[in-house]
Amino acid sequence: MLSQEELVSSVCEIYNNLSNLNSLNPSEEVNMIFTNLVKLCVSPCPIDVTKLPDQVQEMRFKLIKLCGVAEGLMESHYSGILGSFDSPLDHLYLFPYHTNYIKLGQLEFNILSQHYTHVPKQIAFIGSGPLPLTSIVLASNHLQNTTFHNYDIDASAISLASHLVSANADLSRRLVFHTADVMSVTDALKEYEVVFLAALVLVGMEKESKIEVIAHLAKHMAPGAILMMRSAHGAKAFLYPVIDVADLVGFEVMSVYHPTDEVSNSVVISRKR
Q1: Strand 194-197 and strand 226-231: pairing?
Q2: Where do the DSSP E strands lie in the chain?
Q3: How many CB atoms lie within 10 A of CB 74?
Q4: Beta bridge partners of residue 171, listed in sequence order
Q5: Which region, left, alpha or beta, applies to residue 127 given φ > 0 means left and ψ of -120 to 50 means alpha?
Q6: Hey, what domains does the chain have and what are their CATH numbers?
Q7: How far apart are CA 228 and CA 212, in angstroms?
Q8: Is the Cβ–Cβ distance between 44 and 1 less than 8 Å?
Q9: pTM for this entry
Q10: Are strands 226-231 and 266-272 parallel, antiparallel or unpaired?
Q11: In this structure, how many other beta carbons lie within 10 angstroms of the beta carbon of residue 115?
C-alpha cells in the first residue's frame, strides 16, 4: 500500500507531465500517462484530500480539469471510431473503460433499486457527452422499458451520441437526445423520476456554480424524484470532483457509496424533498 506522501508525489509528477503536453487528444503517450494515473488513484491509500495543503489542493483542481478535458476528447475520439461501424453498439468493447461502465452501471442500478421501488418510465441524464455509455448500459442491461433523455450543451456531442444508437431499433426509440444547457431546462425536469448529473458537468465549476445547478434541479424536479450524482473518495478524488452532501439543499441524501474496487466514482443518491 502506498503512503500518502508517495501517492501525492507520484500524482504531482504525473500532473507536471500532463501540463507539459501539447495536446490531450488520445495518443500512445497520453493514454499511458492516464492509465498510470488511474492505476495509482484506484490503489488503496488512506488519504483525505480535504486535509492536503493548499498547494496540493490547487494542483488537484487543475488535474481534475485536465482529466475532464482528456475524458471528453477520448469519448469523442472513440465515439467517432464506433460510429464508423454498421452496428456501433456491437463494438463498445473497443472503448478502454467499457468494463468500468458496465460495473458502474450495475452498481448504480443496485443502489437505485434499493431506494426506488418501482421501475422508472423516464430518466434524464444531464451531461451525457458524445459516448453516452451509462444510458446505453442501463437501457440495455437493467432498465429495458425505460426511456432515457440525454442532455448535453454541445451539439457535436449530441450528434455523435445519437448516431451510435441510430442503427439499434430498440435503443434508438428509448434514447432521446437534446442539445441544451441544464440551466435552461425547466418544465421538462418535472417529467423525470430519476435524474443523473454527470461528473464532467461539474468539472472546472466553481463551488457557487455547482450550488446554482443543484438549486436549479431542486426548483424544477418533481417532489420525490431521485437525483443520482457521481463523486469521488480517497485517492480517486484526484480524478473527479468530490460532492459535498451539505450542498444538496432541497434534497434528502439517502446513501453515499464508495466502491473499493477499480471503479473510479462514488455514487450519491438523494431524493427531492
Answers
A1: parallel
A2: 122-126, 147-152, 175-179, 194-197, 226-231, 251-257, 266-272
A3: 21
A4: none
A5: left
A6: 1-273 (3.40.50.150)
A7: 17
A8: yes
A9: 0.95
A10: antiparallel
A11: 13
pLDDT of the chain, 273 residues: tens digit per residue: 889 999 999 999 999 999 999 999 999 999 999 999 999 999 888 899 989 999 999 999 999 999 999 999 999 999 999 999 999 999 999 999 999 999 999 999 999 999 998 999 999 999 999 999 999 999 999 999 999 999 999 999 999 999 999 999 999 999 999 999 999 999 999 999 999 999 888 888 888 899 999 999 999 999 999 999 999 999 999 999 999 999 999 999 999 999 988 888 999 999 999
Distances (CA, A) of 146 to 59, 121, 163, 257: 41, 5, 20, 24
Closest CA to 230 of 194, 192, 201: 201
Q: Which three cell numbers stand for residue 168?
A: 439499434
